[in-house]
Amino acid sequence: RGAAVVATEKTSMSFVDRIKDMFSREGDEVAKINMLSERRAALAQRRNRLYEEIASLEEKEAELLKQGRENKSAVVRRRLVAQISQLRKDIARQNTTANMLNQQINIISTDVHNLTLIQQGEAASLPNTQELTENAVRAEEMLETLKADSDLVSSLETGVGEALMGGEEADILAEFDEPA
């Protein structure tokens, strides 16, 4: 019997160590997601079985209530009252357990969601802060150079346009501004 206890402790320790190891490794989100998804599915199955048991207990309660209404014997009614009281306590306990399972499922689902976000974020291979800053500075320098070149070209075009326009063309241009 002692060997069985030691073997069980070693098994549970290795399981605990395996879980700790799994959560201590960074970047192994796929394994964590899979393990948590399996755990969530097992909890959901257990919760669903509880709901089925609760429904069965509620049916028994309804049947006992019906019997109590139909039977006029005080002894039988007291027995039915005791049975119904016990059923209601059992239903309350099962509901408490189901609520606990719902909370556990919610916690696991949130963790799976967060791990999925981490996994997707890492897959994107986004640039780090330094790269973002360097690229922003280079882009701003390029825009400043482009604006300076554009301003220079605009000033040259104005001068070139006036130099190319002859006197006759200037007179015609002035005619455009005169009233008809």
Q: What tags apply to this protein structure?
A:
5 helices, 180 residues, single chain, mainly alpha
Overview of the structural elements:
With 180 residues, the protein is an all-alpha fold. The protein is 90% helix and 0% strand. It contains 5 helices and no strands. The longest helix has 50 residues, at 74-123. The radius of gyration is 40 Å and the shape is elongated.
Please give the structural blueprint.
Elements: H1 2-24, H2 29-70, H3 74-123, H4 129-164, H5 167-177
Helix pairs in contact: 2-3
The major pleated sheet works out as: none
Could you estimate the helical fraction of the residues in percent? over 70%
List the secondary-structure elements in sequence, H or E: HHHHH
Mean pLDDT metric = 83
Shape estimate: elongated
Low-confidence stretches: 4-11
Secondary structure class reads: mainly alpha
Q: What is this entry, summarized?
A:
The protein is mainly alpha-helical and 180 residues long.
